[in-house]
Amino acid sequence: MNDLSRGLAVEKVALKKHLVFDLYEFKAFWKSENGEALEFPMPYVSVPFAVVPYFAALEVILFRARRYFVTLDNRIVGLFAVKPKQSLLVITNLAVLPEARRHRIGFYMLDQIRSLAAELGLKGLRLRVLKKNIPARQLYMKYGFRKKEETRLSLKLEKRLQDT
Length: 164
What we know:
Blueprint: E1 8-13, H1 15-29, H2 47-61, E2 66-72, E3 75-85, E4 88-96, H3 105-119, E5 124-130, H4 134-143, E6 146-150, E7 154-160
Parallel strand pairs: 4-5
Antiparallel strand pairs: 1-2, 2-3, 3-4, 5-7, 6-7
């Protein structure tokens, strides 16, 4: 397992650049561990009727979030979005390019998020993860997140900064 984190950089991204990226690259980041991707299996003409609501919903989730790209040699290999809520920094989106996974990029991104929370004077991190997303759950648990709440499909996880 290579550690690529030495060559990584974090770039804060404006909404417009993030939207353009989503429109052209979102499929690459949504691939699951077994190589499946988010697909819109319908005629080309009807794709806008599926894609537009998808991005509208994503923008509601990311409303007022700070968005970041993680790059390696000027190539985007990860992205995350966070927003302060009460005394916590909520991670609303975190993804690593499938071919860049298992190289500690997720840990690097979580370290960057933890540092941002500390700079903002916040006391911890919070996120939601789908129960069926085992690799992400394992990453968060290794990083020190603990389960705070469980629903039928997801887990709410938190990590206090003093637990670092």
